[in-house]
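Quick board copy: two proteins, each given as sequence then tokens.
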Amino acid sequence: MAVIAPLIGVFLVLRRYSLIADTLAHVSLAGIALGILLKLNPIFTAIGVTVASSLGIERLRASRRVSGESALALFLSGSLALATVLLSLGSGLNTSLLNYLFGSIVTVTQNDVYTIAILGIIVIVTLVAFYKELVYISFDEESARVSGIPVRLINTILVVLAALTISLAIPVIGVLLIAALIVIPVIAALQLRQNFARTIISAEIISLFSVLVGIFTSFYFNLSTGGTIVLIMLAIFLTILAFKKT
């Protein structure tokens, strides 16, 4: 997940889609609530709900009937309302749900690891396959459209991959913090003002370092895994920002 998240994040940030990560994270909460209520694997229900919502967001945005920000607000507020209702029908907030909210690596099962690995590979392969198109659209969407690139299809693929990434990262980083794993390493890497390829590499290094150090630190000091990882990423971002100002 530390490898995949920045790969998705770099395209979302450059497209100014950063808020979609936060929106889909909250949408996934409804999927998790549905899984808990129906006694199904919450990861699979989160994937289904989040992917469906990502398609809905992109279709609504592409229709131009509402602005992109308004579409995100609609899905974010609606999904939170749905999650609240679903939880009220079941056992409400419990320890299992809190693990998904804030992340808990010790509760990740072997089947979760297999699911993350298989779908993670699919995400990476898809990104590689459409890498040139994604880069082109990220920098000049209108020129890409004129050149014959199916912009709408590529945008749909991007949001679906973002939905998959968010759903897969929930057990480790948590619903409330997953957007940070996608966005912060990219924002930190962009402060270094490198070319596109080096920016991706820098974001990967920051993400991997933060996740690995965060896991070990949270284990030995009995801290929240997701929160520790995010705080380390923020510390790296602030350090880079401070040095670039000097």
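And the next:
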Amino acid sequence: MESVAEPLAVARRWLVLQHVAWEGPGLIGAEADARGLHPEVRRLDISTSLPLPDEVEGLVVIGGPKGVYESDKYPFIAGECSFIAEIVRRNRPVLGVCLGAQLLAKALGATVFPGHKLEVGFGFVNLTAEGNRDPLFGPEGPQIPVFHWHGDTFDLPQGATLLASSTQYRHQAFRFRQCAYGLQFHIEPDASIWSAWRNHLPALSIDVPEQRFEAIAYVGRR
């Protein structure tokens, strides 16, 4: 993708794209507020309205139960991918989490598809050599505690750098250029999000060890 010149004097803000009521930005939103960014949350399951790309300073795309390849059921997906691609093209920060990472991968031209098995529960991702050198991930490595909850995966976009893998799925985190990151796993759950998730998780026995929850929360606040 080629970058485009910045327009003159456009008022911009940070934006969160949310896909379902019970999967919000959590710790990511709290950290953004603490840094004075105060992102606007846009619920795409309610409205497909998006601002102009030139009005966006940075973008966070969070998760949800939809499949990127289900554009026949969710017509907004094609427009959302085009929107993400435009933000990346303008070299503005983009963070995609779970479904958001899959949408980012699709926006960058990669294929998203059902994985070989469901990956859900507390676990770890292992940083690659590039992940250990990454300015965001490197200080946390070589192994990061996360919460997994996905059944889809994606090919690594052309030109992207693989940052982390798990034993079940190789493509767990990637960076495109310097400021677009895709995370297949979750680091955003706070207590309220976890409470909301419990009614939607697959019928598996998932305990919530306080030490693991706090470890993930620590990474999410970094």
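Board note added afterward: The beta strands are 13-18, 40-43, 56-61, 94-97, 112-127, 143-154, 160-165, 173-176, 180-183.
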